[in-house]
Amino acid sequence: MPPRPKFSKEQIINSAFHIAKTEGLDNVTIRKIADHLGSSSAPIYVNFNDVDEVKRAVIHKVVELSQQMLQEHQSGNPFRDIGIASLKMAMEYPVLIRDFALEPNEYLKNYDEEMVRELVNMMQKDPGLEDFTEEELMAILLKMRIFQTGLTLMAANGLQPEEFDFDQMIKLLDSVAEDVVMAARIRKGEKQ
């Protein structure tokens, strides 16, 4: 009979998540997880084959967390909802945001494609965007993601002007979204 796990998978993932959110994903090691749990590394290997498997579980937890934040803001305006969720993630988990946005991350490749599909689906439900094709929505989304990534990194690093609070960041986001959509409409009209 195999040994009974001393810690659940969830406890191990939570410990690894704590390390990732304070020190970065690259600093998640089996040894650090064991130290954080006050254990040897053996119980971790009962639940996981290696540190890469643990890191994939941490990424999955972060993705679930970001999706949860996105679901909390269903205003019907996809750019606003995405922006609020991104900015909240940046303010609550700045190390993770810097890690995911600035470091090449093989763990996120599949999630990014899945997320883009989900975001385009959200955009297709927005009455203000219904006259755009999927290809046009992808182009609009890419432009908004580029802007949002920059704004999110500024928030994660505290680089925005001091008087530039959360509400002002959302107003800026709304303004840029309006500009991007308006420019897309103008280009679409010029092509017809």
UniProtKB/TrEMBL annotation:
Sequence ranges assigned to domain HTH tetR-type in this UniProt record: 6-66
Domain of life of the native organism: Bacteria
Keyword entries, A-Z: DNA-binding
Keyword Lipoprotein: no
InterPro entries: Homeodomain-like_sf, HTH_TetR
GO molecular function terms listed in the Swiss-Prot or TrEMBL record: DNA binding
Gene3D superfamilies in the record: Tetracycline Repressor, domain 2
Start-end of DNA-binding region: 29-48
Annotated protein name in UniProt: TetR/AcrR family transcriptional regulator
Source organism of this protein record: Paenibacillus lautus
The organism's taxonomic lineage, starting at the top: Bacteria, Bacillati, Bacillota, Bacilli, Bacillales
